[in-house]
Amino acid sequence: MGQGNSCNMQAAYVELISRSNTPVPPDEGSGRTLSASPGLDFDLIGVYTGDDESEVIAGTGGTFQGDQPNPSFNIVGPVGAVFFWRFATVGQGTRIEGDTWEITITRTSPSMM
Asked: Strand 29-31 vs strand 21-24: parallel, antiparallel, or unpaired?
């Protein structure tokens, strides 16, 4: 294996372990609180939520909720609504976008009580 392949594999591995993973609730799950295992060496978690999957993936249409130090986020929306969400791992001068997951909201948030 050439050195170029080794470097490419190492870069791919670093990106993989740096991505947020293990979503709670799992993909197509239900609830209101989103969380995921942060990637390696994270400083902040970028949060994206919305009802349009393509906008969440692209980070457009007001889906960016901000960078925060905690890998957990309470989503606001009506019970029964389907939302898409993802976290980005931010650290050491890089931003690694995570996978996009789906959630159906099942509980009323404290701000809606």
From this structure: unpaired
With 0.90 as the threshold, say if the pTM is over it.
Answer: no
Fold adopted by 3-112: Immunoglobulin-like (2.60.40)
Say how far apart CA 103 and CA 25 lie, in whole Å: 7
Quote the tokens at residue 58.
Answer: 């692209």
The per-residue b/e assignment along 32-51, b for 16 or more CB within 10 angstroms, e otherwise, is bebbbebbeebebbbbbbbe
pLDDT band at 93 (very low <50, low <70, confident <90, very high): confident
Q: Which amino acid is at 7?
A: C
Domain assignments of the chain as residue spans, ordered by start: 3-112
